[in-house]
Write a structure and sequence with these properties.
About 45% of the residues lie in helices and about 15% in strands. By secondary structure, it is of the alpha/beta class. The longest helix has 17 residues.
Length: about 375
């Protein structure tokens, strides 16, 4: 079975990491994956290149690039595969998938533009995406029940074939590289209480909520540090907020780092403050390490990752987060193995192998069924 995965770019994000991991796993089975990348940019380009997974660039300049030569190029690639698995929407790619006559699977990973006012281009894209998803020859999967509920409402999907396939925790990249920066930070902060997050700094990640809660909690505590791993459009705003709240000397901006796991290992507590997350792979990563991981009650599908048993880690406000950071700060010398085990057991439910298997079953069903209702 030959599967063509489409992602927009090789930016360092949950979708891109997931698709790369999925393709690598599929190469070990009886599936032949190929990654089609919309535009040639992103921090994961080297990782994709080194993975051994076949990939091709479509060469798009923007989401509204309707070049005929690019259309013919992607159409030809699609015709060489059995299933076209789209992980993001692009009008030309969607049209080529339809014209190819191949089986089409579309995974809704989120991106509902919640919390911000949509522009004209957003409205156009939403209309085209809705028309595409309503087609009977397009099968749909979602990475959480929340994402399914939002998509059904937003795109008016009705009674279509819809499957929830939760993301799986990717195997950590076990390289022997030792970052000097991380080693120095670890040495300098051996006795400090470190609260951190790792994400792309954009509007929906709401890192400012963590910054404000930390400022409130850390007042008068010289042994506390805020570790912000990542980069993005909100970086400057966050830098200004840190200065305004007078916590610059306690805050570390690492910038983009491919060694996210090693930074996470240094955190006493991780906070994933994002709103309307379709899934929240970052929360799963720190839970698997047994690190207390806090989220907010508007986190979307991330609430499903924690489940009812870990509701104590779901915050209603910044002040509640600040109070809980205080509680863990006071208890920091105590080892709580039962909480650590609960976090790790919960994370273990979302195994990467299970996700790969669920997609394989989905592909098999897709190949065996001509009626897509």
């Amino acid at each position: 079975m030959k599967i063509l995965h489409f992602i927009w770019s090789a930016n360092f994000g949950g979708i891109e990491k997931l698709v790369l991991g999925l393709a690598v796993a599929q190469m070990k089975g009886n599936t032949s994956p190929h990654i089609l990348i919309g535009c040639k940019k992103g921090e994961l380009l080297q990782s994709i290149s080194e993975s051994g997974a076949p990939f091709t660039f479509a060469g798009f300049k923007s989401g509204f690039d309707f070049s005929n030569s690019k259309y013919r190029k992607v159409l030809q690639i699609m015709k060489e595969h059995d299933i076209v698995h789209l992980h993001t929407f692009n009008p030309l790619i969607a049209w080529a998938a339809i014209r190819s006559g191949k089986k089409i699977l579309y995974t809704v990973h989120g991106n509902f533009n919640l919390g911000r006012s949509p522009g004209f281009n957003d409205h156009v894209m939403n209309l085209l995406r809705s028309l595409f998803l309503k087609r009977t020859d397009v099968w749909i999967t979602f990475n959480s029940s929340w994402a399914k509920e939002m998509a059904v409402k937003k795109y008016g999907l009705g009674n279509k074939r819809q499957t929830v396939i939760y993301n799986g925790l990717l195997p950590e990249n076990a390289t022997d590289t030792k970052s000097e920066t991380i080693a120095v930070f670890k040495q300098q902060n051996a006795d400090n209480f470190i609260i951190g997050t790792a994400c792309r700094f954009n509007h929906s990640k709401s890192v400012d909520r963590l910054v404000r809660a930390f400022a409130e909690f850390s007042r008068g505590k010289d042994d506390t540090r805020l570790l912000l791993v990542g980069d993005g459009s909100e970086r400057q705003h966050l830098e200004e907020l840190v200065d305004k709240l007078k916590i610059r000397e306690k805050t570390i901006f690492t910038g983009f780092s491919p060694e996210v796991g090693k930074w996470q290992d240094l955190m006493n507590i991780c906070v994933i403050p994002g709103r309307f997350e379709a899934f929240g792979l970052a929360a799963l990563e720190t839970m698997q390490k047994g690190i207390p991981t806090f989220i907010f009650n508007d986190a979307g599908g991330m609430l499903e990752v924690l489940g009812n048993d870990l509701s104590e880690y779901v915050m209603k406000s910044e002040s509640e987060l600040s109070a809980n950071l205080e509680r863990y700060y006071i208890m920091r010398r105590q080892q709580d193995e039962s909480r650590k085990n609960m976090l790790q057991q919960r994370a273990g439910i979302f195994s990467f192998e299970r996700m790969v298997s669920n997609y394989q079953n989905c592909y098999r069903d897709l190949m065996q069924n001509s009626n897509h209702h």
